[in-house]
Specification:
The protein is built from eight helices and four strands, in the order βαααβαβααβαα. It is α/β, with parallel strands linked by helices and about 200 residues long. A four-stranded parallel β-sheet has the order 2-1-3-4, with helices on one face. The two termini are about 30 Å apart.
Length: about 200
């Protein structure tokens, strides 16, 4: 862990987003295994399943889910979350992952920009829309849940289209774990990254 004195540069904040079922959890896992703190209260899979954690910090993930359904977001919540995470990180690298960040993009970027002397590092995971939809259908537990998720996904895809040409790092579904790790390490300026450790247990798509 690197602790910086007051006035020293803070590392860029990593933001991982993209459509639901586009591989954001996989990319966040690799970032986590590279030593980037992706949260302290990780969202866990349902009991009795063999799924990996989603690598989303539960408090903000819940707030974003409520926002996606109701359309009301308290920007003070984002700022409060950023302050807590920055304090927990104590000058080391940290980030957050959620497809829903695209729905409140301007507010999120304004907040994290205050937590670093460097511009945020943005990773956009990409996958063909029909494949994302098929995966959502398989993962949904009911028709009601599926309708709600598809409605949210349509808004995410619209927000993603508006970021064309923004210069974000785009990670296509199917990129090898090692290449993902190398890309993240380069953008986050991680010296001598252990790529073997970063991809440990990560399945190729």
């Amino acid at each position: 862990m690197t602790i910086r004195r007051r006035g020293e540069a803070l590392p860029a904040v990593l933001t991982i987003t993209g459509p639901m079922r586009s591989g954001t959890s996989r990319v966040a896992r690799i970032a986590h295994q590279l030593g980037i703190s992706m949260g302290t209260q990780m969202r866990l899979p349902p009991p009795g399943t063999a799924l990996d954690p989603e690598y989303e910090d539960q408090p903000l993930a819940d707030a974003l889910a409520t926002f996606a359904l109701r359309g009301v977001l308290d920007e003070a919540l984002l700022e409060g979350y950023r302050r807590v995470r920055q304090e927990e990180a104590k000058g080391s690298r940290w980030g957050f992952k959620s497809p829903l960040l695209l729905l409140c993009w301007s507010a999120w970027i304004r907040s994290v920009a205050q937590g670093s002397s460097e511009p945020p590092v943005v990773i956009l995971c990409t996958r063909e829309a029909p494949s994302c939809r098929e995966s959502l259908v398989r993962a949904s537990r009911s028709e009601t849940e599926l309708r709600a998720l598809l409605g949210i996904q349509a808004r995410i895809l619209q927000a993603l289209a508006e970021r064309e040409g923004a210069g974000d790092l785009r990670i296509p579904f199917g990129m090898s774990p090692r290449e993902i790790a190398a890309q993240i390490a380069h953008r986050m300026e991680i010296p001598d990254p252990d790529l073997d450790l970063a991809i440990l247990g990560v399945r190729a798509e």
